[in-house]
Write a structure and sequence with these properties.
By secondary structure, the chain is an alpha+beta fold. It is built from eight helices and eight strands, in the order H-H-E-E-H-E-H-E-H-H-E-E-H-E-E-H. It has a single domain, classed as Muramoyl-pentapeptide Carboxypeptidase, domain 2, CATH 3.30.1380. Helix 4 packs across helix 7.
Length: about 230
């Protein structure tokens, strides 16, 4: 029964074919480092970007402002709540490596014509991925410096990470919905396959909100974040 529930939840999420053909009309907005505040905590929680950006997290300029607004909103709703950003921009080269590794694992399990779409379920295809566009963030809430219970850890890739899984506690689901509401209320699009993942300005955001185009393209990181390698 649970597998049927998970399949039904997944069927409601955007698929590769829903976003692949959305155009990008770049607005050339720069990447900026997130600045911490009493309500916003931001440092890399995964090792793969440390050699490129150090512990700083980079996102597009508008995304940074939106995250600040979300953090203040959460604190106003539940005093003492902080928004923790654990991941933002991912180097395009890392996205390609991760995608190719997962694609190789799936080789032979599905027809070659379906291989890219099947891989995309686990690792986004590089030329439509939101993290390499500086458009996506992985976030959670903290209280007293500790993560708020959302039923699973960030990056715990099991079906119960689906935002609307009915198999997590009521309090965990309420916490997920509080985070989702604050992020969406500021303009982010959710990815309901991972309760922690939200984006703005990328292809998935455009598809979710029925926009004609995205405006953040994928890019490689430069030592000067205001200069983007196209």
């Amino acid at each position: 029964m649970s597998q049927e529930v998970y399949a039904a939840l997944e069927a409601q999420m955007l698929q590769y074919q829903d976003i692949a053909d959305i155009p990008v009309e770049s607005n050339n907005e720069p990447l900026v480092a997130l600045i911490q505040s009493p309500t916003l905590v931001a440092h890399q929680l995964r090792d793969e970007m440390l050699s490129i950006t150090g512990e700083k997290i980079y996102v597009r300029e508008t995304v940074a402002r939106m995250l600040g607004a979300v953090s203040m909103q959460l604190d106003s709703q539940v005093p003492g709540t902080q928004l923790q950003v654990g991941y933002g921009y991912r180097a395009l080269s890392i996205q390609k490596t991760n995608f190719d590794r997962q694609r190789a694992r799936l080789q032979g399990t599905v027809p070659d014509s379906e291989l890219d779409a099947a891989t995309h379920r686990y690792v986004a295809i590089p030329d439509i991925a939101a993290h390499p566009a500086g458009a996506a963030v992985d976030v959670r809430m903290l209280r007293g410096g500790e993560p708020v219970d959302c039923g699973t850890d960030m990056w715990e890739f099991i079906p119960d990470t689906y935002t609307f899984s009915p198999y997590v506690s009521r309090s965990a689901r309420d916490n997920r919905l509080l985070l989702r509401s604050a992020m969406m209320g500021t303009g982010f699009a959710p990815f309901d396959g991972e309760w922690w993942h939200f984006s703005y300005g990328d292809k998935e955001w455009a598809a979710y909100y029925d926009k004609p185009a995205a405006f953040y393209e994928q890019l490689e990181f430069s030592t000067n974040p205001d200069i983007r390698v196209q």
